[in-house]
Amino acid sequence: GQQVMQIPQYQHVQEGEDFTTYCNSSTTLSNIQWYKQRPGGHPVFLIQLVKSGEVKKQKRLTFQFGEAKKNSSLHITATQTTDVGTYFCAGKLTGGGNKLTFGTGTQLKVEL
Amino acid sequence: NAGVMQNPRHLVRRRGQEARLRCSPMKGHSHVYWYRQLPEEGLKFMVYLQKENIIDESGMPKERFSAEFPKEGPSILRIQQVVRGDSAAYFCASSPLSGNQPQHFGDGTRLSIL
Hints:
The complex is a heterodimer.
Chain A: E1 4-7, E2 10-14, E3 19-25, E4 29-37, E5 43-49, E6 55-58, E7 61-65, E8 71-76, E9 85-93, E10 101-102, E11 106-111
Parallel strand pairs in A: 2-11
Antiparallel strand pairs in A: 1-3, 3-8, 4-5, 4-9, 6-7, 7-8, 9-10, 9-11
Chain B: E1 5-7, E2 10-13, E3 19-24, E4 31-37, E5 43-50, E6 53-56, E7 65-68, E8 75-79, E9 88-95, E10 104-105, E11 109-113
Parallel strand pairs in B: 2-11
Antiparallel strand pairs in B: 1-3, 3-8, 4-5, 4-9, 5-6, 7-8, 9-10, 9-11
């Protein structure tokens, strides 16, 4: 079954509100990657975190990698309509070979 | 600098026919990954290939599905005797190295089975 879960599954926010998606793995991850997929589009790489406890920022986006390297979060400050899409975390599971396991995704809708 | 190229973008097949999906990785990338995505769902790993080698096919159904990445030409995902349940978007991604490298995705092939 799915070993990388994300919550929430869906999130509707008003433009200007903050948004957070959480990613949890059943096993430790060597790294965590985040992707964004616009409706009808393909996943686009956003960022990669490698170190335990690492925090990275990209403008209004803040990414964190948990101390135990089993969870991660993506926080968007003051959402805009351009943030609409589905956000996926992905990581290489311990004992999972070289493939990336994608999370279940969080679909974000931003209303004016 | 062309990205990952997938064709066709849309493919319609009748039950029992064969579907061939093609993927040309980014220039300089030797690792190819195939994923399947159902509407409103996440990406399910299918297979990981390098040139002429299948590295990990743990996500491939045991029957009807096969993949190759020949020395020359694109990677091919082949589905024989398609059934309605095969309808999905199939994405290909490539990376220069395996594992910890970001993957670059193509636009996908939307497969519809009549």
